[in-house]
Amino acid sequence: MFGDIAQFLLNILATLYGAVLLLRLWLQFVRMPPYNPISRTVFQFTDWIVVPLRRVIGGRGGIDWACVVAAWVTALVYLAAVMMVDGINPTSLFPEALWIALLLLLKWGINLVMWVTLLMVILSWVNPRAPAMPALHALTAPLLDPIRRMLPAMGGLDLSPLVLFLITQIALMVLSRIGLPVFGL
């Protein structure tokens, strides 16, 4: 019972922090202003690990690799902690853990896309003038605009978030078949 509770709490903490690191990368990709309240909050939570890594790794090709590496290290630490809770020596699965951490990172990113899109859709119904809406639109526009161009006009009904949601679900199914069932992730 203690092991299940510990794994649950580790999963929550690692997933949230990994998602925040990936959100930082996403915010930078869409060029969200750093004075935006969402950007400021994300930067405050992640600066302690990203800024020192950026001095070593830096960014290339328009990608902040320090955020990617920080999220990958978070996934590795999470996997090691889960293995220790299960009584497994983390070094015994070293090469596989690197691959599984990468898949876990992809899972966190896909889940982040799904939840941000879902939050944007719900807020657009409940409070379209919410202060977070411009940031949510900026985050989701690069993903939804190509889908909108391919879908036929539906008379004011935007089905692109539904299509993106379906794509994320299919991607999660594919990831679960590739390698994450090993740890029940």
What is this structure, in a nutshell?
The chain has 185 residues and is mostly helical.
Defining traits:
185 residues, mainly alpha, two-stranded antiparallel sheet, 2 strands, globular
Count of discrete alpha- or pi-helical segments spanning 4 or more residues: 6
Number of domains: 1
Radius of gyration: 18 Å
Biggest beta-sheet profile: 2 strands, antiparallel
Termini distance?
A: 18 Å
Shape: globular
Strands of the biggest beta sheet: in what spatial order? 1-2
Report the uncertain regions: none
Helix percentage: over 70%
Structural class: mainly alpha
Q: What is the β-strand count? A: 2
Q: How much of the residues is beta strand, in percent?
A: under 5%
List the helices and strands in order.
HHEEHHHH
Mean pLDDT equals 89
